[in-house]
């Protein structure tokens, strides 16, 4: 009898621009297409996506029976992008488990949404990572009215799902100031400084500094005028376990200020 699948890793993916879905010139696209071969050769039982593009006041999971709708939540992009579909199966059983473990950890209200499909923060990276769209997916929202520690604790509550073969992915962006994007090939200094600070904090296991990035990191308010694109990182980091160091698994830049830095967090001393 095969042993039940237990995962040690969680991931944070910087999904950057929606053009990642079609633009072969983006290095991050090729990184994601090679994800399975390089980082996870076991097929997960299900995927839990925490996307920056689903903001709610309280935690909410989508509980979909059948196939997901593909939400094209972006504007003014090339027509072929609006024709892309990622009809992954829903994961209502996982949605129920997410709700259970969050409520058992003190998140008193967790909602279920039985209609919402996958937004581009979820389906664009998944389309590249798992193009067959044959793995059940559940999406969990972020709460921009809360802080990094709140989302880290959310991840801590979800950590046990890895023992059930659930792949936990936070999808956001290491830097995300859309008003600062340009056409320059050189990266602006504030973005470099914030990105380097985040890398150093994650690689050295300074979880509390990351949780309080808005007070600790240089140019935090410029790099993230709003926090929704960094909170998926906090969830993935929390779900990896206390004391875990991060590993930078991809790094590239686009539009002078948009970091595609992506990280793997591997649990320490966990059974294989």
Automatic annotation (TrEMBL):
Keywords of this entry: Dioxygenase, Metal-binding, Oxidoreductase, Zinc
Occurrences of domain Extradiol ring-cleavage dioxygenase class III enzyme subunit B (ranges): 10-265
Family that this chain belongs to: Belongs to the DODA-type extradiol aromatic ring-opening dioxygenase family.
Record Pfam families: LigB (PF02900)
A Gene Ontology molecular function term of the record: zinc ion binding
Species assigned in the record: Nicotiana tabacum
Protein name: Extradiol ring-cleavage dioxygenase
Cross-referenced InterPro entries: Extradiol_dOase_DODA, Xdiol_dOase_suB
Cofactor(s) needed: Zn(2+)
């Amino acid at each position: 009898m095969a042993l039940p699948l237990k995962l040690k890793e969680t991931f944070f993916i910087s999904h950057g621009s929606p053009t990642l879905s079609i633009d072969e010139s983006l290095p991050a696209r090729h990184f994601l297409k090679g994800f399975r071969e390089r980082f996870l050769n076991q097929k997960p039982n299900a995927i839990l996506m925490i996307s920056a593009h689903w903001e709610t006041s309280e935690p909410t999971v989508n509980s979909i029976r059948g196939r997901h709708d593909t939400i094209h939540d972006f504007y003014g992009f090339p027509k072929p992008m609006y024709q892309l579909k990622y009809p992954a199966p829903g994961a209502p059983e996982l949605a129920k488990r997410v709700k259970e473990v969050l409520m058992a950890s003190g998140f008193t209200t967790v909602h279920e949404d039985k209609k919402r499909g996958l937004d581009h923060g979820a389906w664009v990276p998944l389309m590249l990572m798992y193009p067959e769209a044959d793995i059940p997916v559940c999406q969990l929202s972020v709460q921009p009215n809360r802080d990094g520690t709140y989302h880290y604790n959310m991840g801590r509550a979800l950590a046990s799902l890895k023992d059930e073969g659930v792949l936990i992915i936070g999808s956001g962006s290491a830097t995300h100031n859309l008003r600062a994007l340009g056409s320059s090939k050189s990266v602006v200094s504030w973005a470099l400084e914030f990105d380097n600070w985040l890398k150093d904090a994650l690689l050295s296991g300074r979880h509390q500094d990351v949780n309080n990035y808005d007070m600790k990191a240089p140019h935090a308010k410029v790099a993230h005028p709003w926090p929704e694109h960094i909170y998926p990182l906090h969830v993935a980091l929390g779900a990896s376990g206390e004391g875990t160091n991060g590993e930078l698994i991809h790094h590239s830049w686009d539009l002078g200020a948009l970091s595609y830095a992506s990280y793997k967090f591997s649990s320490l001393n966990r059974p294989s």
